[in-house]
Amino acid sequence: MGAVIARSAGFLGLWVVLIGFDPSDLAVGVAVTAAATWTSLRLLPSETHRLHLAALPGLGLRFLWQSVVAGVDVARRAFDPRLPLQTGFVVYPTRFPRGPARNTFASVTSLLPGTVPADDDEKGLLYHCLDVEQPVLEQLATEEHAYAKALAPRRSDA
């Protein structure tokens, strides 16, 4: 029930931001909110985890730092012909089940220097790497640990 209320409030808030608050439009806004909530729950059911809000600033800073490091590393590799590249693929067996948490993890880890998620299957996430000699799997494990700490099991909404 908490997911329904949270999504409804979010969609109604989005409606007010986009359309503005006019009491004559409120009935339409409620109908659109109900339809959007129903659709979102069918297409993206509630997960068993929720994000700790207190962890968001740390994840945000980590995300920004990884972005800067990745950009500098890729630029350095692109402009220095002496740097040997050992391109290839590695499979990371993530503990996140397929779904939004795993997709977010793949998106965040795409900022690791020289890595891009290329596939997702039952074995794990497949990453294309500029240099497979680098400790890519260890970096991914560190990122997964940081991301997992920000998730908490969802309490039963009874």
Helix-strand layout with pairing:
Layout: H1 2-19, H2 26-43, E1 49-51, H3 56-79, E2 88-92, H4 100-109, E3 115-121, E4 124-129, H5 136-149, E5 151-153
Antiparallel strand pairs: 1-5, 2-4, 3-4
Helix pairs in contact: 1-2
Task: Provide keyphrases for this structure.
single chain; 158 residues; alpha+beta; 5 helices; 53% helix; 15% strand; elongated
Q: Low-confidence runs (pLDDT<50, min 5 residues)?
A: none
Q: Mind describing the biggest β-sheet?
A: 3 strands, antiparallel
Shape annotation: elongated
Residue share in β-strands: 15-25%
**Count of strand segments:** 5
Number of helical segments with 4 or more residues: 5
What is the CA–CA distance across the termini? 7 Å
Structural domains: how many:
2
Estimated radius of gyration? 20 Å
Percent of residues in helices comes to 40-55%
Strand/helix succession: HHEHEHEEHE
